[in-house]
Write a structure and sequence with these properties.
alpha+beta; 16 strands; 9 helices; ten-stranded mixed β-sheet
Amino acid sequence: MKLDVPLLKLPRQYCAETLAAEVLALPRSAWIAHPGKLAGNDAVPLITPGGVVTNGFAGPMEPTESLLACPYIMEIMADLGAVWGRSRLMGLAPASDVPEHVDVGYYWRTHLRLHIPVITNPGVEFTCDGQTEHMKAGECWAFDSFCLHNVRNRGTEKRIHLVLDTVGGENLWDMMLETRRAERQELPLKFIEPGRTPIDTLAYERINTPEIMSAWEVRCHVDFLVRQAPQTVTLSPITDLLDRFLVAWAAAWAQYGASHNGLYLYRRLLADIRVNLKHVGADRILLHNAVPLDRSLN
């Protein structure tokens, strides 16, 4: 999700000792390999489609057995007050890293990611859009995943972060807004004592990835990406093509909606716009994060 700052420290302090105790009590079998096979990277799924051990993004979300074994993590989620999507514990071995990248795709466009360090060391650095921070245990950070970012662990022990994905929520939004309004003045941290936050209000995603996007949602995403592109004369033929595509998609949606009867038309529109964008050089238009416009649109 796009933010107006690379990294945002929220006014919360969670109990690092309780977090570490819960996480270290999980069996070794709870840890699975990184889906991208990145060396030194592993994870414990906490919220997944159906609550099963998977790296999937789409479908009704449920807690896994690992999350149910970590009541304080559930209290943290309740305190933040959001609707939760795929979430994990993410491990990074000593002398390992997550290479610089941008999270591009439907899921990342619609979700905010929070990092809460559980076990860390001074050699762990998180860099986003040129800003580098060492996140301390128990802190809570939001970051702009649409910017270039990377993580390095130069220490001698494994780093473990609680990584929560969400489309948001009123309480979390208010907390982020309060932090932004404070600007350079760091807000006092509210310590969330273990065992004091009810978890019966926890909410999980039920609807997240539409099979066919509505005309309004397609326009929302396209307009967002065009705003991230340099506003030069070379963008004009691209926006003309995209406007024509959006009108055609709206016409198809008015006729078929999400019915499979319209799949042939939706697929033709997508195939045509991909070819047309290539002809006018959309792959040569780089967004502010150095990702080509056509890749982001895809």
